[in-house]
Amino acid sequence: MKKVIICAFLLIPFMGLKAQELKRNYRPVYSIHEPHFGILGGIQASSFHGTDDSDPGFQFDFHLGFAYSMPVSKAVSFEPQFLYSRKGGEIDYAYSAYNHESVNYRLHYLELPLQFNIHTKSIFDFIIGGYGSYLIDATFNVETNRAYGYGELDYGDFEKHDYGLIGGIGFNFPFSKVSIKYSHGLRDVLENAESYPYLEGAQNNEISLSFTGFFR
What we know:
The chain has a single domain, classed as Porin. It has 1 helix and 9 strands; from the N terminus they run αβββββββββ. The protein is mostly beta strands.
């Protein structure tokens, strides 16, 4: 037993030296002060604002894509992203007390967010920026008190381009980043309001939660 105790005490300095060596050689995969490429994905609650004749509700959807973080200074980094994002909103139509339906309008975009991350002395950033996007498809889900269905919206009636502002916060970790953002669209989603009068004046807005995994 004495030999075991003596050997254990002799190993303590060696283990301490190895721990110090590992600490010196360890570098996190993601640092706000180095350029990095990442893959991101997340969920979002999207809706419309600015509609004239309806009160749209939020619907849950997702986004997937890529990000590249580029330091501008010790306090700021620039992060362009390229995403596939499904936006839209839910509108309830009540024809009578016994006849109603809920329609989820789903607008499929290729989106280019351009955001600046303003670093603090803590793990979180402030995020500001804007986005531009291109509409690639328009679909819907409909649910009534008797049935459920889905289909295609008339793609030609919707604006192909959208743009808006972004604001939020991000939390930096050694291998990843978690972001909570609000996006406020500045362009009407409809090109022709005659086919969808309930969406006249509608513009996109959303709250999103994103997880980004970065690589060296």
